[in-house]
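pasting input
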Amino acid sequence: MTFIVHDPRGVRVASVPSLAARPKTLAGMRVGVLDNGKEQADVLLGRVAALLERDGATPVFARKPSFSRVAPQEAIDALAMCDMVITGLGG
Amino acid sequence: MARQARPMLEFPSEARAYDEFAARYSDGLPVVLPTPERVRAMLAGTREDPDDVVGLVYPAGNAATIRDVAINAVMAGAEPRQLRIILAALEALLDDRFNINGVQSTTHCATPLVIVSGPLAGESGLEAGNNVLGNGRRGNLSVGRAIRLVLTNIGGGVPGKTDMSVQGTPAKISFCVPERIDVRCWPSLAERQGGSPEETTITVMAADGPITVSDHRSATPERLLRNVADTLRHMGSLNAAKPGPAALLLAPQHARIIANAGWTVADVQRFLFERARNPVWRLREGGEWDPVHTPRSIARYGDAEDPETRVPVLDKPESLIVAIAGGDSGGFSAVVTHWNAAAVLHRFIDDDGSYSVPHSAREKVYQ
């Protein structure tokens, strides 16, 4: 006889996304660059953006006012128009 | 919005369930197994539909139904009469303004502090006297633990995976504080939030662990609260460089010293707003001074370039949550500072004697 208990994990609402296909080239790509608001993140990501531009990509900048909060909707909307997005931890 | 429950979990035996279930779904300690009978009994603690959703728990973003909360409450060792307290606290914690996603994910030790003020605390088996923050207080511990289990099991706040807290704090296991409403130094926290003496409120704040303020020498509010101010303004707290809320859990002995001198809670808040400050030179010398954010955070209190500008720990006097807690004898209070990206919120619980959570709960936001 089996022992039965409730599952404590709640109800799944969002599906778990799978990884998108990796791009083969950066040329002509719109690349979102999300600055999480940490000190120096803009410096680091600015350098990344310059390198992306050199390889033919168009950077699209967005910034989080606080690294401890979810990005504002306008930032998410802007990034949603991009082919890919880069973010990172500064500070 | 009603949602279907997950399928039940089956184990070959109770012994296997005890070991394997706790290994997967726990705060690290063994749990009470949420059998159908125990969950049914727990659900008698509310009139709500078990399929109703209390909120989405991030970072996982899973929905917590009343039943799901009851399951985790069973696991925590809570009693059915405590379910309404747990549900009301979760309603506040899952409000977007509380930013549970940030609280769960941060490298800081942030954890929800839950203060219960009003007669339902005692009626629900919470104990506000000796060792209120410690061991031996099953009601307080179970309510706090149930919340932690919801955050872990439903919200996916798993240490080292999504819960990135560097050290954590013992307060992450459980941090629920009922107020001593029988110590009538001044109106209770619930009354100051607009409630009647019959009403009960839940107040939530994203918190550090508590710091003890020892003081058996002070006979005046000024001397005592200067000690509290020094504890509040310690440089390791996030409040030092970014003024915000904090909580002061006053020992009854300390509260009486203050009240006997004719001081109100507003007097305490104003005094600590003025006294719990650090000069800019001190903030620059160490701690979390950030050349980008700090000058912006403190601009309203003076010139950030002036070394003598005194920066408060509280963003405004009323941001200090004051509650009386603990045993009658002894001069030991506690200060709790704040994780700075979450609003302090409170909720009223129904006082009609039923075990109901009002979804249209009256609420007030502190910041």
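fyi Residues 353-360 of chain B have pLDDT under 50 and may be disordered.
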